[in-house]
Design goal:
The structure holds 2 protein chains of 2 kinds. By secondary structure, chain A is an alpha+beta fold. Helix content of chain A is 36%, strand content 22%. In chain A, the strands form 6 sheets. In chain A, strands 8, 18, 19, 20, 21, 22, 25, 26, 27 and 28 form a 10-stranded mixed sheet that branches. A 6-stranded antiparallel sheet of chain A has the order 1-2-5-4-3-6, with no helix packed on it. The radius of gyration of chain A is 29 Å and the shape is globular. Chain B folds into 3 domains: 5-73, Elongation Factor Tu (Ef-tu), domain 3 (Beta Barrel); 79-356, Rossmann fold (3-Layer(aba) Sandwich), CATH 3.40.50; 367-455, no CATH class. Chain B is built from 12 helices and 24 strands. In chain B, strands 9, 11, 14, 16, 17, 18, 21, 22, 23 and 24 form a 10-stranded mixed sheet that branches. In chain B, strands 1-7-4-5-6-3-2 form a 7-stranded antiparallel sheet, with no helix packed on it. In chain B, strands 13-12-15 form a 3-stranded antiparallel sheet, with no helix packed on it. In chain B, helix 2 (158-168) packs parallel to helix 3, helix 4 (220-239) packs across helix 5 (252-266) and helix 10 (398-415) runs antiparallel to helix 11 (425-436). Chain B starts with a strand and ends in a 9-residue tail after the last helix. The chains are: A alpha+beta, B alpha+beta. Strand 1 of chain A pairs antiparallel with strand 5 of chain B. Magnesium ion binds at residues 238-239, 261, 329 of chain A.
Chain lengths: 603, 464
């Protein structure tokens, strides 16, 4: 008889002979759900996804025979699910404002029928393999849900349902497997979350994920199928940045995992996305988005599961041939959940209480990102972007340092910049991207051949200005040459007019690649023009006072993506802004240069 | 089980009592303990199996005689009786009257642990709450449903600031009458407790107030229950009686230290500075009880107050709090030393939800830009002050000297205000314009031309 022996917080010891590791269990009179994490003879240790208060030894327990798995099929998009994929909207309707314990509602609604169209060339008698497309369902106006043969199914198609409306449980196809057994397929399938879904091979070539955020796209690009981390202390802007990416990136599907963070932030997404349109498809953004929520006040064990639930759903859409982006806020909370369970299991802590397998778990998780050739031969990708919340903002702590070794793009947020209200507060010196070379090809082809050079020049100005700033702080601005003062000003200009980008500004929230490049080129042109005048003897002070220097700071908000032609014209006409000043000095330039040479000083 | 008494204690040590041979005791149940002298103690089941039940004893296990200790398992979690009558009352840390009046009689009891709000049930915080303090209302506005902590330090006047907010806070417009405050203080001295209680009584704030007080010499474990009891009262007022409730809790550092003490007894693995790894989740369980709910009129807004050990903002208590709350109000030792009250450092302070609570719909159309301009101008003024410290004020340019005067006036007159001074948000914004008028109009780029034309008072000689 299966029953509870002991309860210790979220851990329960069960008398459950034959339990499998990872097996799902239901325990107690309430039927709380959980999973087996250790076995010893006839007893099993399970962790519960729900609060164990009120549970008593002797109450019944039951093993469900399968590991934690998700339901995959139409009805996922636009929804919000908890860490073990229970539909939160339906739960709200069923059990009210507070999440009742022991509620079991399937992830996909059974009340709805979907308009299924079989794929044209699927005929009885043909052999189908895992990953093949059976047909399609228009799940939302922007996303066609491709119904796949589950990865573990292959054999002869005996029968395929005609076009029509079906609920997710209706049998659509029957397949005779190679071993002679029959399999019925429907619109929905299950997959265990801790096992990566298979694909044919990795496909390394890729194009940049365009997010519309200048400092990301132009300076520290990420590729579709890439891995990125956003570490930063509290309030630095991790969530804002992830919201911006979820809103504006050019992926086809976005999965937002709120892992141990605030409930209000999910509400923000839920309330704002339906009102915003995708700049790439023109459709409401909610149609391509799905939320997984285990907020910080929800049970910790389900927090650990939530990132796996998210990534498995991401892989499922990848297998349909889509570019999927998953953002996880915050991976630190997931790691802390791991630490908490490890602590209760009495496992040896290594660094800051974390178990020894922290690094390998993180690596295995990020490894599920990638651009792949699917089982059916299409291309799809999962891009993974994880926020990291280091205690005290210290990047040397275990989660940040392990993550840094795994990812390719590192968007480091800084408290100093955030305190100065420089948003996004991405530190341009500490951030890096391993994808610049690949991105350069795309920018050269689609935007401008000079992209890589312009980018490098801007970064050079920024790092040079850091050095100059130090000098100024020590001995004052007088110690700089005119050229240096002008470069310092140009770097400030790049910071304000290019790097800073207010998420809250209707025009500036998203910048197309073309606009990003125009701004960059325009600012560099201002710098170059100024240098030319300095060579004629114009002092930096006069240049800094030029109206164009103030005006350029407003370009980003003045020229929306519809006004790019005007911006292009503005940038092309920059020389004129300097002409009057040039005229003043050009006449005198011969003598000025002579005087300078005689005095042996700086022009 | 409730009616059975067990005398099977097998060991007692450091606040933990082990009971043998009691089958079927539920996890998280409240426990009543009577010792040989007839003294009653309270406890909580933290681990249970058929062979042994582990009970955490709130009043400690000192002098327990195992053979003469009677234990009753009450089959219920800690709960708080609720009714309309809780308004105007003062309770101890676990919800028993502290004001000499009779206990609350009510058929309704609420589990003080609450239950997590379904994220799908939340409504986004919006609308303005006025605290009457310019530095908060003007530049770090509080929004209904927000959680905005005050980060302070030992010796700083956070209790006075908290009390002033409790006395002054109000809503604008129609909802004004639906306002209520829950105030919880834990680990405070009896002198502080008196300060709060008498202050609220005198000002008449008590009528719309529920108070929970846990004193420094009362059991540590009770401190873990106090904020939970307070939030339970707040949830009742907000979501059953449709009130807009402001919860002020002080001092979260005392709470976290109590949690650490108990964690050490339980043998939990420490993470940073000896605090258990679950400190984050534990604090979140409290703070996330703030918010608004779809289709319900009420709201819970939370101001936890904490003193940062050694003024260190990276210490786990402020750090983890900052990771959960929606911004922070930071008190400054420097301003305090200069006699500025309330010593609010506006630059490191931030209200993340401010934009959703201010502007034309809630306060005044110029509010967002005035706030942004004050930030920018004051930041610039502090740079000038830094420069003046190096090269001397005499060598500053005329323009820079105006910034220096602005900084001084801003700190004295805008941030600084008397403890009895309740400034409404319009007075705060007018004052902001008075101060901005000290600066050249051309430098005020964050406000619009129209706003300048309307509110800027050129040549206004500002008096100190
Ligand atoms: N791109 C941006 N544009 C405008 N404001 C921003 C931007 N990024 C951050 N902010 C400001 O900073 C605040 C904090 O940002 P956010 O909530 O993203 O921080 P976080 O790093 O996620 O913090 P936590 O770790 O506490 O969750 C925001 O509420 C907003 O006021
Ligand atoms: Mg965040």
């Amino acid at each position: 008889m299966a029953r509870i022996i002991e309860i210790n917080g979220p851990l329960v010891r069960l008398e459950l002979p034959g339990a499998l590791l990872g097996e799902q269990v239901r325990v107690g009179a309430l039927g709380l759900s959980g999973e087996v994490i250790a076995r010893e003879g006839d007893t099993a240790l399970a962790q519960l996804y729900e609060d164990s208060t009120g549970l008593a030894p002797g109450e019944p327990a039951e093993g469900l025979g399968h590991p934690l798995s998700v339901e995959l099929g139409p009805g996922l998009l636009g929804g919000i699910f908890d860490g073990v994929q229970r539909p939160l909207e339906a739960i709200w309707q069923a059990s009210g404002d507070r999440i009742a314990r022991g509620v079991q509602i399937p992830a996909l609604t059974r009340d709805r029928r979907w308009d299924f169209t079989p794929a044209a060339d699927r005929l009885p008698g043909m052999v189908l393999n895992g990953g093949d497309i059976l047909g399609t369902v228009p799940e939302t106006a922007s996303i066609e849900h491709r119904i796949l043969v589950p990865p573990d199914v292959a054999g002869e198609l005996l029968e395929l349902a005609p076009a029509g409306d079906y609920d997710v449980d209706a049998t659509l196809a029957r397949i005779r497997m190679r071993d002679g057994t029959l399999r019925k397929l429907s619109l929905c399938q299950r997959w265990p979350v801790r096992r990566p879904r298979p694909f044919r091979r990795r496909n390394h070539a890729g194009e940049p994920l365009i997010t519309g955020q200048r400092i990301l796209d132009t300076f520290y690009p990420l590729l579709k199928g890439g891995k990125a981390a956003i570490p930063g202390p509290f309030g630095a802007g991790k969530t804002m940045l992830q919201h911006q990416i979820a809103r504006w990136c050019n992926a086809e599907i976005v999965i937002y995992v709120g892992c141990g963070e605030r409930g209000n932030e999910l509400t923000d997404v839920l309330e704002s996305l339906p009102k915003l349109t995708d700049p790439h498809s023109g459709r409401p953004l909610m149609e391509r988005t799905l939320l997984i929520a285990n907020t910080s006040n929800m049970p910790v064990v389900a927090r650990e599961a939530s990132v796996y639930v998210g990534i498995t759903i991401a892989e499922y859409f990848r297998d349909q041939g889509y570019d999927v982006v998953m953002v996880a806020d915050s991976t630190s909370r997931w790691a802390e959940a791991l630490r908490e369970v490890a602590g209760r299991l009495g496992q040896m802590p290594v660094e800051e209480g974390y178990p020894a397998y922290l690094g390998s778990r993180l690596a295995a998780f990020y490894e599920r990102a990638g651009r792949v050739e699917t089982l059916a031969g299409n291309t799809g990708s999962v891009t993974l972007i994880g926020a990291v919340s280091p205690p005290g903002g210290d990047f040397s702590e275990p989660v940040t340092s392990h993550t840094k070794e795994i990812i390719q793009t590192f968007w480091a947020l800084s408290k100093e910049l955030a305190d100065a209200r420089h948003y996004p507060a991405i530190d341009w010196l500490e951030s890096f991207s391993g994808y610049v070379g690949e991105a350069a090809g795309w920018w050269a082809e689609h935007v401008d051949p000079d992209w890589a050079e312009a980018r490098a020049r801007a970064l050079e100005l920024l790092s040079e200005s850091e050095e100059l700033r130090r000098i100024v702080n020590l001995v004052g601005v007088e110690a700089l040459s005119s050229e240096q003062r002008w470069s310092l000003e140009a770097a400030e200009l790049i910071k304000e007019a290019l790097l800073q980008q207010a998420a809250t500004d209707a025009v500036d929230s998203y910048a197309s690649p073309a606009k990003q490049y125009l701004l960059l080129a325009g600012l560099l042109a201002i710098h170059a023009e100024g240098l030319r005048l300095i060579a004629l003897g114009v002092p930096a002070r006069r240049l800094i006072e030029l109206p164009v220097v103030a005006e350029a700071r407003r370009w980003k908000t003045r020229y929306g993506d519809a006004e790019l032609a005007a911006l292009r014209e503005r940038v092309a006409g920059l020389t004129e802004d300097f002409m009057k000043l040039e005229g003043e000095y050009a006449v005198a330039s011969g003598s000025a240069a002579r005087v300078a040479a005689e005095e042996g000083g700086q022009p | 089980m409730k009616n059975l008494e067990f005398r099977t204690a097998s060991s007692a040590r450091g606040g933990l009592l082990v009971m043998a041979n009691v089958a079927g005791v539920a996890a998280g149940t409240r426990v009543g303990i009577t010792d040989h002298s007839g003294r009653r103690r309270n406890g909580l089941v933290i681990r249970t199996s058929d062979d042994a039940v582990l009970v955490e004893v709130f009043e400690d296990t000192d002098d327990l005689d195992l053979e003469r200790t009677w234990v009753r398992f009450l089959d219920e979690p800690y709960s708080l009786p609720v009714s309309r009558d809780i308004l105007g009352r003062v309770f101890n840390g676990v919800g028993r009257p502290r004001d000499g009046r009779p206990p609350i009689v009510s058929g309704q009891h609420r589990d003080i642990n609450g239950a997590p709000l379904n994220p799908a049930a939340r409504a986004y915080p919006r609308e303005f709450i006025e605290t009457g303090l310019s530095a908060i209302d003007g530049m770090n506005s509080l929004t209904r449903g927000q959680k905005l902590p005050i980060f302070s330090g030992g010796g700083l006047p956070h209790n006075r600031v908290a009390a002033q907010i409790v006395r002054q806070a109000r809503l604008l417009g129609e909802a004004a009458g639906d306002f209520a405050v829950v105030f919880a203080a834990f680990g405070v001295s009896s002198q502080d407790a008196r300060f709060f209680q008498e202050g609220f009584e005198e000002s008449g704030a008590l009528e719309r107030l529920v108070m929970f007080l846990n004193l420094a010499d009362e059991p540590v474990i009770e401190r873990l229950l106090t904020p939970r009891a307070a939030l339970t009262a707040a949830e009742y007022l907000a979501f059953e009686l449709d009130r807009h409730v402001l919860v002020v809790m002080t001092d979260m550092t005392a709470y976290a230290e109590a949690l650490r003490e108990v964690a050490v007894l339980r043998g939990d693995v420490p993470a940073r500075k000896g605090y258990p790894g679950y400190l984050y989740s534990d604090l979140a369980e409290l703070y996330e009880r703030a918010g608004r709910i779809r289709n319900r009129p009420g709201s819970i807004t939370l101001i936890p107050v904490l003193s940062m050990p050694s003024d260190d903002i990276t210490h786990p208590i402020p750090d983890l709090t900052g990771y959960i709350t929606e911004g922070q109000i930071v008190l400054s030792r420097e301003l305090n030393a200069q006699g500025v009250y309330p010593p609010i450092a506006v630059l490191p302070s931030l209200s993340r939800l401010m934009k959703d609570g201010i502007g034309g719909d809630f306060t005044r159309p110029d509010h967002p830009r005035v706030a942004s301009q004050l930030f920018a101008s004051y930041a610039r003024a502090l740079e000038v002050r830094g420069l003046a410290a190096i090269i001397g004020a005499e060598d500053l340019s005329e323009g820079d000297r105006r910034y220096l005067e602005f900084a001084e006036a801003f700190e004295r007159r805008f941030v600084g205000q008397a403890e009895g001074d309740q400034r409404d948000v319009y007075a705060t914004l007018d004052l902001a314009w008075d101060l901005l008028s000290m600066l050249p109009a051309a430098s005020l780029t964050r406000v619009s031309e129209e706003e300048l034309a309307k509110h800027y008072k050129p040549g206004d000689k500002v008096t100190r």
